[in-house]
Amino acid sequence: MKKIVVACGTGIVTSAIVAGYIGDLLDAHGYAGHYEIVRCSMAEAPDQCENADVLVATTIAPKGITCDYISGVPVLTGKGRADTEKQILDLMGA
């Protein structure tokens, strides 16, 4: 089971969009039931990342995270989205 932390400034709006997108992506590739998505604010991200596989965030990586980081901005803008999708899918295959 992979733990994916999705964070934005407040943990409300853009993290919900990105989390939904990641869930749909993973389910479409046969990973339903093999992951857990946790949403939080950037202030909460370091604590949430202590036992997570990856942080997907709509801001730069905060100091103090102990897991891998993937930018979630391409999910929102569309620019570079394929690379972000590949990173997320590669994580699931690891």
TrEMBL record:
<dbReference type="GO" id="GO:0009401">
    <property type="term" value="P:phosphoenolpyruvate-dependent sugar phosphotransferase system"/>
</dbReference>
<dbReference type="InterPro" id="IPR036095">
    <property type="entry name" value="PTS_EIIB-like_sf"/>
</dbReference>
<dbReference type="GO" id="GO:0008982">
    <property type="term" value="F:protein-N(PI)-phosphohistidine-sugar phosphotransferase activity"/>
</dbReference>
<protein>
    <submittedName>
        <fullName>PTS sugar transporter subunit IIB</fullName>
        <ecNumber>2.7.1.-</ecNumber>
    </submittedName>
</protein>
<feature type="domain" description="Phosphotransferase system EIIB component type 2/3">
    <location>
        <begin position="3"/>
        <end position="59"/>
    </location>
</feature>
<keyword id="KW-0762">Sugar transport</keyword>
<keyword id="KW-0813">Transport</keyword>
<dbReference type="Pfam" id="PF02302">
    <property type="entry name" value="PTS_IIB"/>
</dbReference>
<keyword id="KW-0808">Transferase</keyword>
<dbReference type="InterPro" id="IPR003501">
    <property type="entry name" value="PTS_EIIB_2/3"/>
</dbReference>
